[in-house]
């Protein structure tokens, strides 16, 4: 493939990838981190263009997911360093504010893997086979993990007293 062919292929798929990945990141992190991770994701997509499968969006989500994980690890390292420096200087670092939204609180109560598979399913509107491509697992494993994650979310929502997305019908029941 010539360099012009590569450029044309990248320019053809980039708009869809950019929009989807930007939305994906906006729901997961702050704007500055989202911009950095989007740039890194696009760079990797360019470098690995020949490896990109025909269904490029789940593959790009997987790249963005790993780039975001790297950015979050770096951020946690920076926070730990800031706390150590603040302790040496005598400053007090306030803990982060708790989530005020019941769904956000329930999602925060889930393991990271459960929350991510639910986000890919609900927010990114991916099918289990596409989620499998993002996570690098089989479609069957994805379906099982998704089912279990939904159950865990339902349990977390019950703990907070929130309805699990619907109200139970009382039709035909006597008080």
TrEMBL record:
Keyword Transit peptide (UniProt): no
Residues covered by the RNA polymerase sigma-70 region domain: 10-77
Superkingdom of origin: Bacteria
UniProt keyword terms in alphabetical order: DNA-directed RNA polymerase, Sigma factor, Transcription, Transcription regulation
Domain RNA polymerase sigma factor 70 region 4 type: start-end pairs: 101-153
Pfam entry (one): Sigma70_r4_2
Family matches, as Gene3D superfamilies: 1.10.1740.10, Winged helix-like DNA-binding domain superfamily/Winged helix DNA-binding domain (1.10.10.10)
InterPro entries on file: RNA_pol_sigma-70-like, RNA_pol_sigma-70_dom, RNA_pol_sigma70_r2, RNA_pol_sigma70_r4_t2, RNA_pol_sigma_r2, RNA_pol_sigma_r3/r4-like, WH-like_DNA-bd_sf
Keyword Transcription regulation: yes
Recorded GO MF terms: DNA binding; sigma factor activity
Example GO biological process: DNA-templated transcription initiation
Similarity field: Belongs to the sigma-70 factor family. ECF subfamily.
Name of the protein in question: DNA-directed RNA polymerase sigma-70 factor
Gene: rpoE_5
